[in-house]
């Protein structure tokens, strides 16, 4: 009830509030309601949930009071714990006791010590009259009509101006957010002759790794920057198997049983960080793609669509491992501009 | 109140001049003369909130958002949104000498060097999880009871938008510490953007300021997380509640409840007391979760390095459905004419959630198309009375739960000593079968429950249960004290609710009052 539309008694506008003002100043009540002044206990005894509370309000008051006391103790203790820089658990415990008991007490107060009704409120239709709706539509359409019909050119000019501003404002804003992709995704820092170094910058010698070993390598000089690590990271594995399957034309890419693949998963770019040594599988822990090291790092399980790109390597005159070339394709996940190069099937060698 | 006439000479006179409501009256008068608050204010105080437990779900969401804002402001005072690399020499010795970003360093400092910092961080994280969770459960309640029907379609749409923004801001938020797991999450987000045909690379480059990892993503995520998205969320919450007040609550059918009224307790004081108490309790529970249930211990994960990864990496629960969808998707990459469409990413991570959320957004329209029901509804449905809608909802929940569970294929395979392949194929089949099965079973159960004699015409709570033989029976709920009495018809909120103390144990008495509109309530 008490919708704004309620009729108000004539005297309601009077500023002076008298003893009887309770009936008027707040907006008045329905006539029918004035006659039927119902009287309820704070909590209605006929509500089965609340019957006990209605019968023993003092008990409820005691419980609420106790809750508040415990709550006060809790928030005070929280303050103390904060000042003393106490442990997280002490802070959390005191905060919980304080807030929970204050809240519990207040809720109980609202539920058991206040009249529960049920109270009712009428709904009034939200919609206006058909006449009002038409009036609004008329105002909108007809007034627009006046503007557009008489000043079509002006309206057009304004629209053109705002439109141009919109494009002009949006375009540089978007363009300045970042560079155009260009050929960025096709490049890594691996170049012809790049020395393979480990995480600490130490070059990898052909005698460094045992058969079955694995090492994350970077092109020399790039091992310590995040940007380079993100795309350049590669796994160097000294395979156990005597037979290696590679793609056509890659027969000499893996000297001395060393084989090197991009460490960036072709699914979503996670580092392919797990190595199943016995089966010689590289496993991506994010979505369980598995790549067969013996078979050109072709995916044998999981959602990865392509083999890990292979880095051609050779052993230089001093016995250090170097890249023959960069990767022959973009590393990592697929994207629209990616061409189909390097997706060929493996063939036995 | 106009106090233009002679000034009161004594304090008593001044008080008398203010009337029976004293300073409150004066304040209301002052405000009302300027902005006219009295009429609307009074009717707001009278706004009726139906008493039903399921109406508290939205309140949980609201109050966890309040906690999120409060703890979030605390965290902004210490967090440094910078991906600049530093070497750590702080209080947490196990990380001493490690390279890390300033963002990670400051988050470690919040956890170990800032007073109550760890509590605030963990409460913030828990509040985010509870926020999204309560939105989802609240949304399920709205769906299954048909509360989204005309005139509330717009509020349903706002609610779904809030859910999407909450998930988005949750993801961005847990990416900010720049620890090993969240850094991996950012990389996955980048790759998902890349997968969008035609514009993906541009989107990714514009968001990250270049190729991954760029050097500015944390800074951008930060301003989106603490300013842009929260502002939109606050605005939408305001619109959500504003519409709620304007359209008034829905209610379950019951004695005295019609399409044209609302029955319950008024905003002030009953609902205000209960809901404020509830807010304090929600805050308290979030506090205890944040203090005792460790969440996102980033110091154990270590700083993000693009070459490192941890086993059993999983996102927060509300991103699980995306992760699961990505896992069970076959590796279908499409390449032709010099272009690549990574369906294995684009379908599960972009098309799938897009479809789910659009179906949700359009549901009021979809349902109207089938039912031809253009009426205004203020009374709620019982789920069993709308078997098709309930079945559709159950199917959707089954689908989402299956892909959510699929986000732990590796953990399940390890735990139950199964082959990962078997687990994967189980989920690939389940993602199709489970929704169909759940939908059919739900539909059938609803139909059978409806047919139970006595389930429809009921005076009191009627429990429809299924016997071990598969038969459905309607059993009246246990009689409770007071059940034999008639439930009172609801009545308008009285102007004044007076509480007069009465001797303990006295029965309710009726004392007539001569003031109109005043209900003297004794206890």
Structure description:
The complex is a heterodimer of chains A (349) and B (523). Chain A is an alpha+beta fold. Chain A contains seven helices and 13 strands. In chain A, strands 2-3-4-6 form a four-stranded antiparallel sheet. A four-stranded antiparallel sheet of chain A has the order 7-8-9-10, with no helix packed on it. Chain A has a two-stranded antiparallel sheet with strand order 5-13. The longest helix of chain A has 27 residues. The radius of gyration of chain A is 39 Å and the shape is flat. The termini of chain A are far apart. The N terminus and C terminus of chain A are likely disordered. Among the domains of chain B are: 318 residues, Cytochrome Bc1 Complex, Chain C (Up-down Bundle); 33 residues, no CATH class. Chain B is built from 17 helices and eleven strands. In chain B, the strands form five sheets. Chain B has a two-stranded antiparallel sheet with strand order 1-4. A two-stranded antiparallel sheet of chain B has the order 2-3. In chain B, helix 7 packs antiparallel against helix 14 and helix 13 packs across helix 15. The longest helix of chain B has 32 residues. Classes of the chains: A alpha+beta (349), B mainly alpha (523). Chains A and B meet through helix 2, helix 3, helix 4, strand 1 and helix 7 of A and helix 3, helix 6, helix 8, helix 9 and strand 4 of B.
């Amino acid at each position: 009830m008490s919708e704004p539309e309620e009729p108000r008694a004539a005297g309601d506008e009077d500023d002076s509030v008298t003893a009887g003002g309770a009936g008027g100043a707040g907006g008045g009540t329905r006539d029918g309601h004035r006659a039927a002044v119902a009287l309820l206990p704070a909590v209605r005894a006929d509500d089965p949930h609340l019957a006990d509370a209605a019968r023993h309000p003092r008990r409820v008051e005691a419980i609420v009071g106790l809750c508040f006391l415990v709550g006060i103790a809790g928030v005070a203790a929280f303050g103390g714990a904060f000042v003393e820089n106490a442990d997280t658990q002490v802070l959390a415990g005191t905060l919980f006791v304080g807030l929970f008991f204050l809240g519990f007490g207040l809720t109980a107060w609202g539920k058991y010590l206040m009249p529960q009704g049920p109270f009712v409120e009428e709904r009034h239709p939200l919609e206006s009259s058909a006449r009002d709706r038409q009036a609004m539509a008329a105002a909108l359409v007809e007034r627009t009509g006046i503007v557009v019909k008489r000043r079509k050119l002006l309206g057009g000019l304004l629209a053109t101006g705002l439109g141009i501003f919109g494009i002009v404002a949006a375009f540089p804003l978007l363009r300045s957010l970042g560079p155009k992709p260009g050929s960025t995704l096709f490049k890594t820092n691996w170049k012809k002759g790049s020395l393979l170094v480990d995480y600490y910058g130490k070059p990898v010698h052909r005698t460094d790794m045992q058969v079955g070993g694995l090492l994350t390598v970077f092109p020399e000089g790039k091992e310590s920057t995040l940007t380079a690590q993100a795309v350049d990271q590669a796994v160097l594995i000294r395979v156990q198997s005597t037979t290696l399957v590679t793609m056509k034309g890659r027969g000499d890419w893996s000297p001395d049983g060393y084989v090197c693949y991009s460490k960036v998963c072709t699914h979503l770019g996670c580092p392919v960080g797990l190595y199943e040594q016995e089966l010689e599988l590289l496993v991506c822990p994010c979505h369980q793609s598995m790549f067969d090291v013996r078979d050109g790092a072709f995916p044998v399980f999981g959602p990865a669509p392509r083999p890990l790109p292979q880095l051609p390597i050779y052993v230089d005159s001093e016995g250090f491992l170097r890249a023959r070339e960069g990767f022959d394709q973009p590393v990592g996940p697929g994207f629209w501009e990616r061409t189909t190069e390097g997706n060929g099937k493996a063939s036995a060698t | 109140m106009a106090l233009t006439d002679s000034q009161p000479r004594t304090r008593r006179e001044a008080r008398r001049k203010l009337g029976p409501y004293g300073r409150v009256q004066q304040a209301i008068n002052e405000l009302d003369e300027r902005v006219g608050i009295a009429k609307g204010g009074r009717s707001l105080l009278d706004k009726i909130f139906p008493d039903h437990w399921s109406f508290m779900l939205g309140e949980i969401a609201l109050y966890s958002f309040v906690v999120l804002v409060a703890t979030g402001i605390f965290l902004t005072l210490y967090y440094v949104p910078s991906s600049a690399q530093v070497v750590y020499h702080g209080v947490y010795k196990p990380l001493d000498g490690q390279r890390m970003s300033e963002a990670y360093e400051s988050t470690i400092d919040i956890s170990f060097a800032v007073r109550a910092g760890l509590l605030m961080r963990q409460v913030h994280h828990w509040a985010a999880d509870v926020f999204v969770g309560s939105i989802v459960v609240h949304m399920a309640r709205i769906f299954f009871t048909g509360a989204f029907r005309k005139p509330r379609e717009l509020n349903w749409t706002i609610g779904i938008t809030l859910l999407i923004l909450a998930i988005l801001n949750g993801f961005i938020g847990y990416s900010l510490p720049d620890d090993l797991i969240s850094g991996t999450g950012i990389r996955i987000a980048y790759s998902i953007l890349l997968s969008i045909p035609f514009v993906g690379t541009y989107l990714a480059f514009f968001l990250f300021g270049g190729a991954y990892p760029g050097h500015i993503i944390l800074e951008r995520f930060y301003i989106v997380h603490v300013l842009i998205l929260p502002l939109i969320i606050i605005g939408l919450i305001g619109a959500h509640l504003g519409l709620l007040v304007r359209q008034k609550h829905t209610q379950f059918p019951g004695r005295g409840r019609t399409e044209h009224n609302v029955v319950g307790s008024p905003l002030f004081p009953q609902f205000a007391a209960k809901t404020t108490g509830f807010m304090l309790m929600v805050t308290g529970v979030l506090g205890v979760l944040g203090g005792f249930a460790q969440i996102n211990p980033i110091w154990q994960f270590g700083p993000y390095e693009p070459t490192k990864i941890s086993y059993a990496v999983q996102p927060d629960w509300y991103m699980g459905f995306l992760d699961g969808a990505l896992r069970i998707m076959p590796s279908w990459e499409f390449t032709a004419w010099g272009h690549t469409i990574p369906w294995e990413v684009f379908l599960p991570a972009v098309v799938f959630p897009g479809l789910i959320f659009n179906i949700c957004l359009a549901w009021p329209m979809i349902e109207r198309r089938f039912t031809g029901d253009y009426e205004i509804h203020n009374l709620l449905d019982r789920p069993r009375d709308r078997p098709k809608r309930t079945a559709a909802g159950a199917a959707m929940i089954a689908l989402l739960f299956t892909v959510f569970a699929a986000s732990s294929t590796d953990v399940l395979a390890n735990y139950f000593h199964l082959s990962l392949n078997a687990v994967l194929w189980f989920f690939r089949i389940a993602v199709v079968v489970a929704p169909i099965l759940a939908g059919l079973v739900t539909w059938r159960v609803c139909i059978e429950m409806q047919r139970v004699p006595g389930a429809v015409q009921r005076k009191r709570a009627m429990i429809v249960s299924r016997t071990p033989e598969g038969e459905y029976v309607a059993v009246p709920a246990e009689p409770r004290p007071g059940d034999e009495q008639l439930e009172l018809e609801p009545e308008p909120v009285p102007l004044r609710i007076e509480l007069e103390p009465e001797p303990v144990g006295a029965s309710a008495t009726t004392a007539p009052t001569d003031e109109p509109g005043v209900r003297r309530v004794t206890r």
